[in-house]
Amino acid sequence: MSGATHKLCLLGDFGVGKTSLVARFVHSTFSDKYLTTVGVKVDSKQVALPGRAAVKLVIWDIAGRNALDALGRNYLRGAAALLLVADGTREDSLASALDLLMQSRSVVPGAIVTLAVNKFDLLDEWEVVPPVLVELRRSLPVFETSARTGEGVEAAFADLAGRLAS
Amino acid sequence: MSTSPSLPPRVGEYMHALMVERLHPLLFTFGEGWQLQAVRGDAAFHGADADAGARMAEIMRDLFTGLPTGQDQGLPFVEFGNARAAHVHLIADGERFHVLLLDAEDEHARQQVRQQLGNEAALAGQAKTRAIDRLKEIRGELERQRASLAEANAFKGALIATLSHEFRTPLTSVFGYLHLLERQVGPGAEALPALQAIRRNATYLLALAENLLAYARGAADAVPLDPSAIDLLALAADVEAMFRPLAEDKGLDFRIECALGEATTAFLDGVRLRQVLINLLSNAIRYTAAGAVSASLAWREGHLHLRISDTGIGISDDFRERVFQPFNRGAQDGSKGAGLGLSIVRRLVAQMHGKLELESRLGAGTRFDIQLPAERAAAPRPAAAPAQPARGCRGASVLVVDDDPDIAQLLEALLSDLGCRVRLASDAAGAIDEVLREAPDLLLIDVQMPGLSGNAAVFRLRSRGYRGRIVTLSATAASAAREAALRAGADHYLTKPLDIEAFIGVMQRLLGERGATRSDAPQVRA
């Protein structure tokens, strides 16, 4: 049962693990080596939803940055969903993700949004503290994820897919 | 000259050829509803199979999901699947539209190198900032821990000093009253063995406590040597007085020999030297059931040579090193101490830059030889030694000042035995009043008392012209305490627990000097 296709963009500062999250979600792989993304990497995956038609996600892994320039806005056009990605060990990357969300609103005002706070496997080094996430969860779905272990990755994408399908 | 904006056809052809060579254009033409109509260009170069048109059409359609196909648009640096990075352009063309892929792999690679360097530098900068913050935190924590350790160390020092004082004071009473009782019951009395057992165990308790404190001090490693002129004959006499009753109690032949010639004074750390002798003699007597225990002091090649020998159980080769380990209980058969004595001896000898040698045969006995580098000197001759020392005490007035009534009464009894007239005071302020009222020939005063200290009282009395003899009595064995007392004006400094023989000797000498120099009568101004 094949359903609609939706464009999903990952937004976040560089080095937070956007490419790794996609690699984990689409290919079930992980590499420790950091390789910066230039431009955009596009992948797709069918996401099965219980009792509903599967959703095809076309995933745009946009080069990491802490502000949205003209190129970034160009990539965003047509996105139905945004996966904001922050690195739990870098508190400033969370602020960047939220800034990017604010800036993206002029391009994709109706896109649904989920926040992934990545590198949960490095919890001992996290700068992001629980009360901050409690506060954020009042506004948007938040998932603690680890591209290394896969923790929370499927759930974050499934949350978006489910909301796109409904 | 022509100014037409259009290029000559030849140039246009050249540029087209150049673009094709460098950008490897691949063009997909789609009709309405993403119906693939044509594919032009080098599909294989872009990693696309020319026959897999449907698959490429799907990828293109996915790429432009959510975007209008009726207007031109460009997407630079797009990677999809295993294809080469490309600049992707959608070109509207009436009912149909084209998707043009221009190769960007080389440009992408160059951009990636630059971006990678920049991003890694930024990440390293952030990590550095975090590391510096963390280091600051760690430094702060270390500072707090250092302060805490310093506080704990100060507390330990205070505790040791307090304990040292606390156990010395009651032992003074024990040894003093033992002395009185032994004199009262006389030789051969039925109670004598019991008194000897008390003395034996009190001596053992003192040695044990001294060793535990020495070990606890640990920092002794850092305490500098404190050499002073040591009267070796007096030291030998003190140690003999301490151990002879124990040796005789076990039926051992006990001797301390001094082959020092004229040089009976050594410049050494007196506290450490005394501790070495006490520990070795204590062990020798404890582990010798029959035979002899002996000690000798001699000068040999610029060193003070100590030899302590016994005919005791000996030490087997297996235990030769282990006996020097702290808390080595069980290293020797029948041992019952804390196992600290020899480890402390070795440490003390090392601190005095000396050498220690051990010779032993199981069942035959043990011999320790210690060489200590030390300056030597002849003992100063007393200016006028009393012919009959005891006579000097007779009739002399002594004021005893101690807040501990047991000690005060003991001192009173000892001095009365010597024929002194004794008055008592229980605090330093009262002592000053008493001296001002009637100056005694000798003031015997405890240092640590509530309120005004003994040293302060001595200083005040000396500053008011009191010229009688002053002996301070303290539970602190440290040489700094001794110096403080002498600086305050005392003539002599005795430590608790009191060595009775030494005490009597000091009293006789000082009061004898009084007898020899009558004109030096004590005077004091209020």
Largest interface: A-B, 28 and 28 residues
CATH topology of chain A, which one? Rossmann fold
CATH classification class of chain A: Alpha Beta
Alpha-carbon Rg of chain B, integer: 47 Å
**Which class best fits the helix and strand makeup of chain A?**
alpha/beta
The 3D shape of chain A can be described as globular
SS-based structural class of chain B?
alpha/beta
Strand order of the largest sheet of chain A: 2-3-1-4-5-6
Distance between the termini of chain A: 15 Å
Low-confidence stretches of chain B: 382-389, 516-520
Could you describe the largest sheet of chain A, including whether it forms a barrel? 6 strands, mixed
Separation, N- and C-terminal Cα atoms of chain B: 129 Å
- The SSE string of chain A, one letter per element, is EHEEHEHEHEH
Query: What proportion of the residues of chain B is helical, as a percent range?
Result: 40-55%
The total count of strands of chain B amounts to 18
Average pLDDT of chain B works out at 83
The CATH architecture classification of chain A is 3-Layer(aba) Sandwich
Largest beta sheet of chain B, briefly?
5 strands, antiparallel
Description:
The complex is a heterodimer of chains A (166) and B (526). Chain A has 166 residues and is an alpha/beta fold. Chain A has one domain (2-165): Rossmann fold, CATH 3.40.50.300. Chain A has helices at 18-27, 70-76, 91-104, 130-136, 153-165, and strands spanning 2-11, 40-49, 52-62, 81-87, 112-118, 142-144. Chain A is globular, with a radius of gyration of 15 Å. With 526 residues, chain B is an alpha/beta fold. Chain B folds into three domains: 9-103, Profilin-like (3-Layer(aba) Sandwich), CATH 3.40.1840; 227-377, 2-Layer Sandwich (Heat Shock Protein 90); 389-516, Response regulator (Rossmann fold, 3-Layer(aba) Sandwich). Chain B contains 13 helices and 18 strands. At the A-B interface, strand 1, strand 2 and helix 2 of A face helix 2, strand 3 and helix 3 of B.
